[in-house]
Amino acid sequence: MPKVLSCLVTLLFCVVAIVAAVPADAAQVRIKDITDMEGVRSNQLIGYGLVVGLTGTGDRLTNTIFTRETLISMLNRLGVNIRAQETQLQTHDVAAVMVTADLPAFAHGGSRIDVTVSAAGDASSLTGGTLLVTPLMAADGEVYAVAQGSLVTNAFIATGAAATITRNVPTNGHIANGAIVEREVPVDLSHRRTMSISLRNPDFTTGTRIAMAINRTFGSDTAHVLDPRTVMLDLAGQDPVATLSRVGDLLVTPDAPAKVVVDEASGTIVMGDNVRISTVAIAQGNLTIQVTETPEVSQPAPFSNGTTAVVPRTTINADTGAKRRLGLLPSGATLRDLVRGMNALGVGPRDMISILQAIKADGSLQADLEVR
After folding, report:
1. Is the pTM of this model over 0.85?
2. So which residues are the signal peptide here (predicted)?
3. Other Cβ atoms within 10 Å of 170 Cβ, number
4. Fewer CB within 10 A of the terminal residue: the chain, N end or C end?
């Protein structure tokens, strides 16, 4: 009996230790939402074709030579010989385009995929056009799909005598289910004995948690971490498809390094929850001088010999930031403390960027600062 009680106490302490190791507000996610499976991937396709049926918004054949040559070659293949009259081509209803698509994993012959169509010449709009049969090739030069169909651009151009309004991008269109898969990319999982799981955000801690979650479900030797990005699975003696399905639904708590990302062009700042600040004092105040000119007109009295004159009136305001106080952030301050302190000082995003750079230079920002 004492031995059983001792085991129960030991188990209780282990459970408490595991619960305490995970933050209370940590969010759990499925493994398949933060990882990719080895060999299960999409492939990029590209093709060159023609869009017809435009209302005078296509390529100018006198300027876009490749559009004219493509149109002549297509008509010749259809039995229309216009080589002798090619200089007389003046149509503006045809445009040369580049067609792109992603061939998803496990796509079978006859299935359909979406395509994106983009103008390659000087066409002003592809609205209302129809893409002619266009083979789509992969990096190996083989044709994997054929695209054709009517474009949707979700854009328009309204032109008047003195103004023009353009909404969205009229030279870029989309065809839902616009391509038929002609060749498959074989992916056989039934005979796999091992499988690598690739983390989208490499991290040793996250990889270790994934391996622990898998081993708790399938056995202690099922998964092990190879590097911060890769977790290797042993599928020997198991159904690979069923095992991968169960692995993808397991919940883990991902970890992320402390990082601050700053985009100076847009004034955007993104900080993770693990960002910490050492003890630092922050003072922010800019000298702002505003000069306003409001000239006034002085009129002479009636029937006098005076002249009308412009009298200058100048107003100057100076703000030295004297009302702003020195803020103190104690050691170990969190993201919430930093944001609250910056807001109390009335600091905007632009000024906060300079403050973060200064804190990093001082060595008080315990995080990686990435400036884009």
Report:
1. no
2. 1-26
3. 19
4. N
